[in-house]
Specification:
Rossmann fold; three-stranded antiparallel beta sheet; single chain; seven-stranded mixed beta sheet; alpha/beta; 10 strands
């Protein structure tokens, strides 16, 4: 996965140019810009900083992590310095920090977590957060004709797509599409409240971390 996103860094944001998705994206960008106002945010898998640019101006500070230096290079040029600290790291082994975050965000990361590692990831993320922290995930819904077709499913229920890059290379990419019920069930043991919303092409999960 890291190798794929490293290779895709320069063309990653093309995914946000699909004409049919523009109304959804404008609504999501407006919504996310106010969710983290005044908060210290830990962003997981920030990629090129596409989503960081919308909520960082209203946040107190953002620490944004990604595994690929190639995408981080783009992100650092997208967001003005001062509000955001970009770091390279592993989402499953978050680096120790002196801050205690009161918010977390991950855009288009959940779908790349193997089903068998979701609880491990959530436990690690929650250890970095204060009780009562706001956690938000956004990701894709599967929409026939817009989404890349599913090519295979493994024994654990994970689904995969084959994606081609402009250099002609082809990559097998883990891409899961959870239901509303699955998402709420997975975060339920850790949340004091949770809400799910969806658009035509995307979903969002927002919850408050229990004490």
């Amino acid at each position: 996965m890291r190798d794929y996103y490293s290779a895709r860094a320069a063309e990653y944001d093309k995914i946000y140019l699909k004409p049919e998705r523009q109304p959804n994206l404008r609504e999501m960008e407006t919504w996310i810009s106010g969710v983290f106002a005044g908060r210290l945010v830990l962003e997981i898998a920030c990629g090129t900083g596409y989503w960081t640019q919308f909520f960082a101006p209203n946040a107190n500070k953002v620490v944004a992590l990604d595994a690929a230096e190639e995408t981080l290079t783009i992100a650092r040029h997208r967001v003005p310095p001062g509000k955001v600290e970009f770091i390279q790291g592993d989402a499953y082994e978050l680096p120790a920090r002196t801050e205690s975050f009161d918010a977390a965000f991950a855009g288009f990361w959940w779908s790349h977590i193997p089903l068998e590692r979701i609880d491990q990831f959530l436990r690690g993320l929650h250890r970095a957060l204060e009780p009562g922290a706001t956690v938000v995930f956004v990701d894709n819904r599967f929409v026939q004709g817009s989404s890349t077709p599913i090519s295979e499913r493994d024994d654990d229920g994970n689904t995969y797509q084959y994606r081609s890059l402009s250099d002609g290379s082809k990559h097998r990419v883990l891409k899961n599409f959870p239901s509303r019920e699955e998402l709420l069930s997975l975060v339920g043991p850790y949340a004091s409240s949770a809400a799910y919303r969806e658009w035509d092409y995307f979903w969002a999960l927002e919850y408050t971390l229990a004490a």
